Amino acid sequence: MREDGESAAGQGLVVKVCLGLSCGQSGGRDILAAVSKGLGLKPGEAQADGCVMLKEGFCFGRCAIGPNAKVGPELISGIDPGDVSRVLKQVGMSA
Ligand code: FES
Question: Which residues form ligand 1's pocket by a CB distance below 6 Å?
Fold first, then answer.
């Protein structure tokens, strides 16, 4: 299954961490946990002002360059599960 990691129209920035088979086997859950901690959001939650929402993703069709996340339409590939700073920076937060 493939999905696009778009920003939802009319909503804030959607951050999706891929938990598809390939990304999941290469640290997707650790990445999600670290991004969750960094944003202070659990998957499915949004900031009180609605600016950022965290979601689980399930394959963006870019498995070969994973593990992957999307911040709005921006694909972030080859994420080190121990360093999600590139994801957080894309959201405008420091790691
Ligand atoms: S499993 Fe993550 S992009 Fe395919």
Answer: 18, 20-23, 59-60, 62-63, 66, 68
